[in-house]
From TrEMBL:
Signal peptide: none annotated. This is HTH tetR-type domain-containing protein. Residues 32-51 bind DNA. It comes from the Bacteria. One of its GO terms (molecular function) is transcription cis-regulatory region binding. It comes from Mycolicibacterium confluentis.
């Protein structure tokens, strides 16, 4: 039986969810309009009504998942008034790595090592967005720590922080990984805190 008729606006989230499921099960290369249509029980024109090209679809999927990643990554950074900043970093990484365990396909798309050529520009834009947003959120914490020459140092410390985040995500995603989110968060959370405080 065919799926009920929905307009493109209501259908797009379903298309992206299906694409994400395919990526999780079979890899990015298998995200095609034909495969999406088959899984959804609709005709290919229904998918084309939502996204003009495969590149448009993949870019939209990456954009959606990057927005979620932004909220998770910046949640690691503690508010200005808090108890132990180091413990807050650990808690933040625990939340991040728990999400990686819950939604591995999303994080594989964001941190893919072998990006689909169609995704290259979107991945570059997504990473740039992550870097800019993270730097903006980190600034008040660094000002509180009275880091000297902040304008010059902020981009470097932002990349250090994101590098630790990416390493922790890749570690969780590795097929042979035996890490639990709590266990890994205790290591990388404290490492991130100490790396960022090295300048103070």
């Amino acid at each position: 039986m065919r799926a009920e008729h929905l307009g493109p606006q209501r259908r797009r989230p379903q298309v992206l969810d299906t694409a994400l499921d395919i990526a999780a099960d079979e890899g990015l290369a298998q995200i095609t309009f034909a495969n999406i249509a088959a899984r959804m029980g609709v005709s290919r024109p229904v998918v084309y009504d939502c996204y003009r090209t495969r590149g448009d679809l993949l870019a939209a999927l990456l954009e959606r998942e990057t927005e979620v990643a932004l909220s998770r990554l910046t949640a690691i950074l503690p508010p200005l008034k808090t108890g132990s900043v180091e413990d807050m970093f650990v808690e933040g990484f625990r939340s991040l790595l728990g999400d990686v365990r819950e939604r591995p396909a999303s994080w594989r798309i964001i941190f893919t090592e072998d990006p689909d050529p169609t995704l290259a520009e979107a991945i570059s834009g997504g990473r740039r967005q992550l870097t800019e947003h993270t730097a903006a959120v980190m600034r008040p914490l660094f000002e509180r720590w009275q880091i000297a020459d902040l304008e010059r140092v902020l981009p470097v410390l932002t990349e250090v922080f994101l590098g630790i985040c990416e390493t922790s995500v890749r570690t969780m995603l590795a097929p042979e990984s035996t890490w639990a989110p709590d266990e890994l968060a205790d290591i990388v959370g404290r490492a991130a805190y100490r790396a960022l405080r090295a300048r103070t």
